[in-house]
């Protein structure tokens, strides 16, 4: 079947941006996502921006889609191409036949994520560019420092490849500081194992960068394993708001290569 784009409204009627969050029992997660979407709305006044959750929080994605008419672009507030992006989101859109829709790429990997990760590390105590700060033993943190990029984890190899790419982008952003991916579940190494591996290579000041959109169980679990500083989740950083809109615009850009619709599924951005 020849790839094609779902029919969209006429010029002037922008499709609704549906931000798709995972959901969490941690009450801070919903507050954080709402703060992020407030930044998105501030950057694009007039754009209809809605929220839907895969699980655990309301509104659920199915409920959000049921209330919409016309066209929508689902923007996953997820950091890799795992099961949720490949299966759950297309299924949710297929279950809303009254909508014409597209699914944007997940947020990661992208250089804007490295920008936000660096900012969160700096807030936690990582030295700002051009400055030094004492580490736990009183030495310059630029000597013997390393970072563990703590992610949720997935059995999907595309998700792990995306996390590795983000680690490389963060290494470049930090001027060559080693960044090793680690996972809270479903993949290896764990944060503790990554810390041990970096120590075996001679690194003594090891920070944990939180590769999570919002606070939650996995973010707290990985931060607790930090031997030095632990950064906050990406949250409502301005770079995240820019990235959400970038993914939305990217999905609507003429000439984007789309995967042909599978049975019961709508068109998905590759």
TrEMBL record:
Record-linked Gene3D superfamilies: 3.40.50.1400
Pfam families cross-referenced by the UniProt entry: CbiX (PF01903)
Alphabetically ordered keywords of this record: Lyase, Metal-binding
InterPro entries tied to this protein: CbiX-like, Sirohydro_Cobaltochel/CbiX
GO molecular function: lyase activity; metal ion binding
PANTHER family: FERROCHELATASE CHE1 (PTHR33542:SF5), SIROHYDROCHLORIN FERROCHELATASE, CHLOROPLASTIC (PTHR33542)
UniProt protein name: Sirohydrochlorin ferrochelatase
UniProt source species: Actinacidiphila alni
